[in-house]
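User: Hi! Is it possible to get a structure for several chains at once, not just one? Here's what I have:
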Amino acid sequence: MTGAVPRVGVVTFPGSLDDGDALRAIEQMGGHAVSLWHGERDLRAVDAVILPGGFSYGDYLRCGAIARFAPVMEPVMAFAERGGPVLGICNGFQVLCEAGLLPGAMIRNRSLRFVCRDVWLRVETAQSCITDGLTPGETIEIPIKHGEGQWIATPEQLADVERDMLVVFRYASRTGIVDEAQNPNGAVNNVAGIRNAAGNVVGLMPHPEHAVDPDVGPTGGQPLFASLLHMAMAGVIG
Amino acid sequence: MSSEQDPLHRQLGLTDDELAQIEATLGREPNRTELAMYSVMWSEHCSYKSSKIHLRTLPTEGPSVLVGPGQDAGAVDVGDGIAVVFKIESHSHPSAIEPYQGAATGVGGIVRDIVSMGARPVALLDPLLFGPLTEERNRWLFAGVIAGIGGYGNCIGVPTVGGEIRFADAHTADPTVDVMCVGVARVAELVTTQSRTAQAGSLMVLYGASTGRDGIGGVSVLASATLDDGAEGSRPSVQIGDPFAEKLLIEASLELIAAGSLEGLQDLGGAGITCAVSESAARAGMGASLDLDAVPLREPGLVPFEILTSESQERMLAIVHPSKIDDVRAICDRWGLTTAVIGGLTPGGTLTVRSGGAVVAEVPASSLAEDGPVYERPVAPPARTMGNGEDPTFVPFEKDLTEAVFTVLTAPNVASKRWAFEQYDRVVQGNTVAGPDSDAAVVRVTGTLKGLALSTDSKSRFGRLDPFLGAAHAVAESARNVAVTGAIPMAITNCLNFGNPERPEVMWELTESIRGIREACLALDTPVTGGNVSLYNESGDSAIWPTPVIGMLGLLEDYRLRIPSSFPRPGLAIYLMGETFAELGGSEFAEAVLGVVAGKPPALDLTRERALHRLLVAAARGAVVASAHDCGDGGVAIALLESAIGGGHGFAVALAGDLPSHVALFSESASRAVLSVDPADEEALVRLAAEHGVPVARLGETGGPRALIEGLVDVPVDELRDAWEGAIPRLLGET
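Assistant: Yes, the chains can be modeled jointly so their relative placement is included. Here is the combined structure:
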């Protein structure tokens, strides 16, 4: 491999909305952003993949239900199985659940309303492609914006997720208190993001790509992108 | 309303005189299809027949105006080859019947207007007026409209960054649902009448959604008549939105423009294909041949007039040179959009419509698009005149001032609209420097340091008492709202929401309001680049108050120098810029505390107003001030409290002068702002104020957990915040 800048791909599905924001965040954090098209089975030699937020295919069946059958998802699944870092944000998280790469599913927010606000997240594990270098217990501020962000799971799934420490972030207060008052959508156990067992696949409802530039929002997304670029680089070297 | 015994033209909303004019144009009787086409194009909504002669008095020119009224949207040159395209429209009538779809399709329509100018939509603002939330139907309308705005706007990747929300009894039957969209384009890539190169032989390509029965005759049935008790029966005239299709339409359209594939572009909105085709042909100075058999239909069996007047959403009409048609198809295919060549431009001026091989309509294109009737309707002031009722300014007030502060702070007009704004995606595109909780939203322009400051404002309570002053105040407040961010007010778009223009007193309100906008725009150097007129906002004998809504564009040369609207830290000096007079007429205090909308609205000295704006712009450039907040509803008291709540810092101030305490707190005198300043910059601020001739008073300092107005108010900021943020949820029964 040449150069020391990891290539991070962002998939554009029909109806993706935050793909441009993810591309910009990658560049701002020092990576090389690569645009990927839903209809092509080519990952263009990227070292990490982001499935961005939005309303892929209008979310008319179920969020993410159609996107997971897009041609690009074939190489994305294979990439994930090889251990490549894959981050699903919001709608991308829903796609990963639909694709079976992550457990659980998303339903409408408890309030039945779309919600856009800055929230605090407590880091639950450093063993994921976006929390490398973070300390469990610390909190970061990132915006959420979704109408169907209430993560749910069967009791068995939930027990497994908690036992295997697959929760990456929980909605919390600034000081790290996790309770119902801090839960913006009713997600079980305040889950805001989860990982697979290997930690290379992560899905989260909050939008770290909207939290890297202090001029337009909080900066809690910076360490997440730093981690993703670092892990992508590790893949390059390894 | 017309009855079924009426002749067809009257059922379609055309008068006998208008029918005669059509017959004179054609030299024969129109057939049913032609009559339907004229009825939509000559509707109030499309033809502006009642307002046109008055709108012509508005100032529309300025050195930075690239495109003025008459096209899909206005455009302003903000320097460095960048054009800002913006326009406001109403979707009030559909929203009164079906709030979610009415509001949603309003968003879709204005976004397509911006796209059809060749601009990428970068911001939406939604000024809304409802009846009181104490009534169940108003709560249903409010919740439905907010959800519809979010449901559509959030799915198309355009941030909703602002828009005021107000409440008044007069909007119970007729909510006002306006929406403003702002777009950015390279000046060289603007699609304007001048840049269109369409010629005879060019193809008309319809792309996007297929055509169905939704929204048949929406402009004539819904938007150009009052809503009566049978309004629910009009539901089939409300269009249904598909934001996913709109998102694809935006991307495909911008790609088509960037690729240089188009000779012209027009969105399909009110009056559907009839409007798009006749306007495209008329603008090119040509006729057109239109084949209805080529229009992709959502369902079989649509008859010609239905295809011609359907307002099915998410459709665009491109004018394409035959050599470029394959390029256009390729780009639309990539975005999964169907394309159909439905006709072409022809020499001469005749629009010929065919269906099943037969000619079903043959009319001059310009007679539909440009030669609609123009009325000079009778104008007469209403029996009630300015300053009616006892002026609340001079009513003694001896009740508890702290209670009055809470009453005004929790009044629905003043209370936090977070319940609504949190349902809007304000961050997508990554350029939102300031969102709905600021006096004006600030959106930076990608690739530059420029910031667009955006505000929408109405002052219908003042307008109710004096429509001239109300409209002028709306312009002034809108300009002030962008100026407190440090931006220079550049230009406006406006949406004129009024009752039935066939009533002389409504026409008087309309003409007085237009006069007010004219005066203020001339004085503040903010030309009118376009807008929309929404009439017939009345039901039974209750019309809405005169409600011109102003959409203001301001420009920050460097968005990083934006002045925030809240106190950022303790230890700052607090100043009031401008002068407070005894002016409680039409104030929030009068309505919320005294229960009256009466008296004379505050005076407005536009020279003073402009001086304040210039001072604020200079202060921002010099980074002299730490925060600035407009004094509007609730006067200096609310400006102080909102500055404290937003920043989370208390303050201690004293209001000097001989005004009675409640007047000093709540007077809504114009041309004022509350500033906070680092002590090191106080001298510079006072000097700047003197240079600009703006009166200035030092009120006190920021800091501590309490809001303290000496001798009058002393309350913890946390308590104020809870009250302010909780008011709307409480009215909705959620707490």
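The interface with chain B takes residues 14-15, 17-18, 20-21, 24-25, 54-55, 57-60, 113-117, 143, 145, 147, 207, 209-210, 213, 215-217 of chain A (CB under 8 Å). The first strand of chain A starts at residue 7 and ends at 12.

User: Great, thank you!
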